[in-house]
Amino acid sequence: MNWISNLDFASEGDLVEVISQRQKKFIFRLEIGNELHTHRGILKHEDLIGKLWGARISSHSGNLFFLLQPSISDLIESTRRNTQIMYPKDIGFILLQMNILPGSRIIEAGTGSGSLTQVLAAVVGQSGHVYSYDTRMEMQNLAKKNLSRLNLLDRVSFINKNIGEGFDQEDINAIFLDLPNPYDFLIQVRKSLRGGGYFGTLLPTTNQIIKTLIAMRRNGLEYIETCEILLRYYQSEATKFRPVDRMVAHTGYLMFARLIESGTVEKEDNDEKKTTKTEKTDTASEN
After folding, report:
1. Is residue 275 domain-resident?
2. Which tens digits make up the pLDDT trace of 89-129?
3. Quick one: DSSP state of residue 154?
4. CA 20 to 30 Å from 168, out of 7, 23, 213, 236?
5. Are 147 and 114 within one domain?
């Protein structure tokens, strides 16, 4: 069982989200005998058990809340962290661009606090698996706690290892490197990624991008795309609909590529240049 209940009502052991009228969110697991203490009153867990999802509930002081199942986006934002986590706006695009599907076998490095790990584990399903590398044991221990909250720990193998020594897996569908120097590990990526497989990385600065572009070309990673995603929210009020004062702008540059036979695209490009040069020479001779 993961964090999503298939029932129409909340049960003991469910992960729930309680939202106040001012959109203050609280995420916790229902346990008989426990209480949620908020600045707008106390909610007893047993009073929530058996309530329909979306139900209106009141604290002991009469303040109104709503009972919901948490979304994956809310879970990411509430993730316990020691480092900057990846934003939902980037994670969603990564899943699409790298074709992450049920049954996929994925490598990520480094683990960090596990925000991306949680989503990967949710998407690959029972038949897929995530292999998460990091040299920092304390970070992986935190990520394990975050995965345990969603009951998804069995879908992830945490590997405490320097990826400069290589990955332990082969024939992998996709590899994502959340590291400051992905360009140093593309030989290792090539050895573990299946032909045509997907590579991705997230980098904050342009000098890192340029180094990675050069290294990608040298290691058979082609059809490269680089982008950034900017997210702007709007005030959802009919009388004052306009952009909110703050927006989630630059969080990093996303890079994606596919693994092909080394040198194929470069050779084709050179052949095309030679053909064009020959055509120009022939034209000049005729004139």
Report:
1. no
2. 999 999 999 999 999 999 999 999 999 999 999 999 999 99
3. G
4. 213
5. yes
